[in-house]
Structures are given as C-alpha cells and as structure tokens.
Specification:
Blueprint (H helix, E strand, L loop, with lengths): L5 E2 L1 E6 L5 E6 L2 E6 L2 E8 L5 H6 L3 E5 L5 H7 L16 E3 L5 E3 L4 E13 L2 E11 L10 E3 L2 E4 L2 E2 L2
Antiparallel strand pairs: 1-11, 2-3, 2-6, 4-5, 5-10, 6-9, 7-8, 9-10, 11-12, 12-13
C-alpha cells in the first residue's frame, strides 16, 4: 500500500478535557456526496483514537507542500499524556472547537457519523458540516513510498 500515492491531512479533535490533539493521516477518502461523508483511518493504539469516540466533531486540514514540518509534527511518536502544541502554525477554531490549519489547501469540519472496527485501525467516518473558505495553501502535499512530494517534484 506504500505505493499508493495519497494526500496528507491533519486530523484534529479535542480530547475529553478539551486539549488539542492532531494526527497526520494519509488514509483519507471521500465516501458519499449525499450526505457528504469523509473517512480517515486511525490506529487503535494511537493517542487520538479514544478521543474520537467522545468528540463532538473533528476536522481534516489537507496539507500544502510548505507544511511538511506540520505533517512531521503530527506523525511523531507520543507517550501517554503527551500534549500537542500547534502554536507555530496559523489556525482557527472550527464550530465544534477543534483546530483548522489555515495554511492548508483545503479543510473540512465534520460531526461523527460512524466509527467502524477495521483490524488494528478504526475507520472514522464524519459528516461534513462545513468547508473552510479561508485556507491559503496552493500545492497539495502528497505521500508515496514513505516520502513526501509536491505534484511533479519530491519535497522531502
């Protein structure tokens, strides 16, 4: 599956005590137009997994090529109790409170629709409630063969 190129997104959610959590995800897809649904796959042993089960909403910011450092930050190893600090990147709050990265090429806000057990992952399906109109990124970040690219040229 590493040979399948995909976009890079940062999934954000608030944990049960209201702290920002974010995770870089590449298993992301549109599911349905009516209702508008998207999915992201999240490993069950990851720190963000349990927060998805109690969250009022979550967001996906589709990262731009100049956000490679944000993608790396969101994919780093974390220990239990670790906290995310997204203050170096421009953000705003969604309607349900989680972060939207305004430097992204696009972003969607979701409310939980379904959480599907899928082996060592959970497929989080969200109903899109809003599409960000304030993102400024120009070129999407692409991930394939465990490397990052911009359309046409390697960036990492």
């Amino acid at each position: 599956m590493a040979r399948l190129a995909g976009g890079v997104a940062l999934l954000t959610v608030l944990d049960p005590v209201g702290r920002d959590c974010g995770l870089t995800v590449t298993a992301v897809s549109s599911v349905s137009l009516e209702p508008p649904l998207v999915l992201a796959c999240v490993t069950k042993d990851g720190f963000i997994h349990d927060a998805l089960f109690v969250a009022d909403g979550w967001s996906l910011s589709f990262l731009a090529t100049d956000q490679l450092d944000l993608s790396d930050y969101g994919s780093r190893e974390r220990h239990p109790g670790a906290r995310d600090d997204f203050s170096p990147w421009p953000t705003r709050r969604s309607a349900s409170g989680e972060l939207i990265f305004t430097g992204a090429v696009a972003a969607v806000e979701c409310v939980p629709y379904s959480l599907v057990d899928a082996g060592d992952h959970t497929i989080a399906i969200g109903r899109v409630t809003a599409v960000a109109r304030d993102t400024v990124g120009e070129r999407p970040l692409v991930h394939v063969d465990r490397r990052y690219y911009e359309p046409g040229a390697e960036v990492g």
